Amino acid sequence: MTSSVFVALVGRPNVGKSSLTNRLVGEKVAIVTQKPQTTRNRIMGIVTKGPVQYVLMDTPGIHKPRNKLDARMTQTASASLADVDVTLMLFEPAGDFTESELTMVEALRKAGPAIAVVNKVDLLSDFAALEARKKKIEEFGVFDRVLALSARDGTGCDDIFAILKPYGSPGPHYFDDDAYTDLPEKELVAELVREKALLFLRDEIPHGIAVTVESFKERPDKDLIDISVEIYCERKSHKGMIIGKGGQMLKKIASAARADCEELLGTKVNLQCWVKIREDWRDNERQLDNLGFAKP
Q1: Can you say which residues are annotated as belonging to the binding site?
Q2: Backbone dihedral region for residue 244 (phi beyond 0: left; psi -120 to 50: alpha; all else: beta)
Q3: Residue-number span of the structural domain to which 283 is assigned
Q4: How much is the pTM?
Q5: Which residues define the annotated binding site for GTP?
Q6: Does an H or E element contain 144, and which?
Q7: What is 67-111 written as a DSSP string?
Q8: How many Cβ atoms sit within 10 Å of the Cβ of residue 83?
Q9: Measured between alpha carbons, how far is 44 from 58 in angstroms, rounded to an integer?
Q10: Are residues 223 and 84 in the same domain?
Q11: Does a structural domain hold residue 295?
């Protein structure tokens, strides 16, 4: 009998939700950088193992909102709890719990089953520290169990599917068995361009950029896709930094993104990137709607 398990991955920014999603799916569905708040929308990774289909929802990091975009991201993470069979809440291997994390733990008390995941165990040097961390999380009294793993090197990741399986509901698979995400190719391309911008630009700019794909056309006469992308920023000075001296930074972003796009699409890509200014778009409800940031 077929069944589906819907799983939300929640946790603070940079705790490894996207890395774990990609690791479990075996494909890059969520962009990953060292910068917090890389994930902005809910991203779905799909894994079908025989009769069981696992639908993993990678959500934005839970943090104190500083603008309307942040508020939408935090609401998206919280709203995801209502849509799933089980929640995986990821924790750092050490350090204090944040106010946002404690709020999420309280929300899980009312939301249904949850499993805690201590990620980045490859960074811990002794077993006692891990056991102490697990004990602290167990004391919340909301998690069915506490797992320890490393999304980076794969330690403990293979066990997750067997642990999630009992939470599934009998019924048809909601996605094709060979699907690995519900994101359209256009959105995946936009995310790859934003990932490269996050990797190469200085800290103050990346969260002020949004990326949209304006055109995506396959050439009928050759194995080539022409893609035109617009990168929106909030300041004239930011536009200069994204383009760089003699256009060097924009070329670097476009070149790295093009290589990933070609791997994703399995064909040659002609990628054109343009930079435009939309002042304070992160605090403008209409701009957020236009740029595709859905209200949860």
Answers
A1: 11-18, 58-62, 119-122
A2: left
A3: 185-290
A4: 0.82
A5: 11-18, 58-62, 119-122
A6: none
A7: SHHHHHHHHHHHHHGGG-SEEEEEE-SSSPPPHHHHHHHHHHHHH
A8: 12
A9: 6
A10: no
A11: no
